[in-house]
Amino acid sequence: MRSVALRSLKSTEDVLRSVVKTHPQWARLVSAVDHRIDRALAILRPQAIADHRALLASLGWPPPLSTLSSSNPDMKSSSDVQNPLFTMQGDLKLQYCESFLALCGLQELQRKRKSRQLEGHYKDVALYQPLWVIEELVNPISIASQRHFSKWIEKPEYIFALVYKITRDYVDSMDDLLQPLVDEAMLSGYSCREEWISAMVSSLSTYLAKEIFPRYITQLQGESDTAIQTQARASWLNLVDLMIAFDKRAQSLAAHSGMLLSLQEDDNMQKMSTLVVFCDRPDWLDLWAEIEFSDSLHKLNSQIEDERNWINEGENASLLSGLEESKSPLISSAVLRCLSSVIDRCRSLPSLSLRSQFVKLTGSPIIHKFLDCLKRRCQEAEGLTALTDDNALIKVAKSVNACSSFEFSLKELCEDVFFLEMGSNQSGGVGTAGDSEIGVFNEEINKLEEFRTEWIEKLSTVVLRGFDALCRDYIKNKKQWQEKSEEALPLTRSFIEAMDYLQGKLSVLEKGMSKADFTRLWRSLAAGIDKLIFSSILMGNAKFHDGGVQRLSNDLTVLFGLFGAWCLRPEGFFPKASGGLKLLRTATKQLKNTLIADERWLRENGIRHLTSTEVEKIMKNRVFNS
Asked: Which residues 6+ apart lie within 8 Å of 79 measured at CB?
């Protein structure tokens, strides 16, 4: 009788679908017929479900779970528990198949009706429903399982083990017995294996949301005892660990069918993830992020306070001989491991927006904490000795080094697809790690770069200031440029002291900094020295005789030689000083009065960085021997 009624309803639906297309003006008539069909289905479906449940009970479903005790929740074999779906025979099996097909037919009819009624709307989301026949298998198992769950509140690992065992033990019957029936019912788009696993995961997540999480939240928010709160935090993190591990095993079971389209899509991930509880309760996600960050910060603080972690990796051991020793302090790797660990925890979240929110709530504060630590160490060094002491310079150099290494690793991390998807979601398009407005950690990376730039400039300024102080007598002695003899002239004592100071400081900084950061530093320092020499000596109204020009040439040769350790043409980083020296050496008495206007001569002699005003002033102070 039920099959006759179902065929009649399906035939009526086909007629209505045809009428809607050929006679859209008959909308009121169609609505009236729909109303009558809804009344019929309101009677037919509950009866079909009730009969199906009675039939399952007569089959012995759910199977007994008493063999799974708290001491043995994850046993590998279930040979002592028979699967009623495989053992049913004769008329009982025929009745079950007919009842199964009837429920599938009713669900397919409802899907077609909604598809027609939602024509032109966003129907795909509304049309999907879990497979009714699978729900009828899972619901009684879920009820029976909860009697065991209540005994394992303090041992949630047993709960996860039991649910996984049940899921695994009966998943083959979904493929072998039930999937052919679903195909026969022409219920398209459903995999019994996926539906079974999804329903079991959903029942578990529902139990966690109703019984386990509220218990932990009460302990966290309602208890004043610190010990209880600490234990609740540890239990929360342990529960999340169990959820992540369970989800991976469940998704692995689903993937074995070879029919899963994409578990990486958010909709599919939500079907197969117990972490879906955080989709419904974003306040729980915030609490989880706070607990995760607090736990990570506790571990990180001990790493930061250990001075051994501020030793460069290359100072501990050179694992790869022949390669440049790493100058990155160990703390950079420790912070990166901490950050990566937190990020890995949220990769299983079944929503892109939740993953992005979790990363910002946990990852960003960790980076800011590390940056604050670097700033504090540099400020302490600066406050004690104004960076005049070598130990203070080394401390700042290592902090800059740690920042540089961590920044590079962070940029590499952001090139992962995991972050590119977040960047794309934020920008509404396809993003890359290099897009300045897209990166998840774009703000943090910019602040790391600002820190490096600021303290490299401070180091350069400190060294330049010391060089300037030692050169003060050398700069003030304008008579030394008025010597007429071009014979070999000794270097002045103040200049030797200044060069010795400069070489010593650069040697200390080179040992403590990475190659890239040290290059930025010495180039900045060279630019400062170039400006100092040019403004104080060449533009300082000193009269230059031939002997004075030779002395300046000898002095600058020593200076250029010092920087020649890091480049092939060091004079190129002193454009003003080398240009002024070249002008003094190559200009002749005959050209003195016409040189200002002779731009061609300046270009031919490689003097390109001096303005006409500067050339004029230098040449006015050039005195040629008669």
From this structure: none
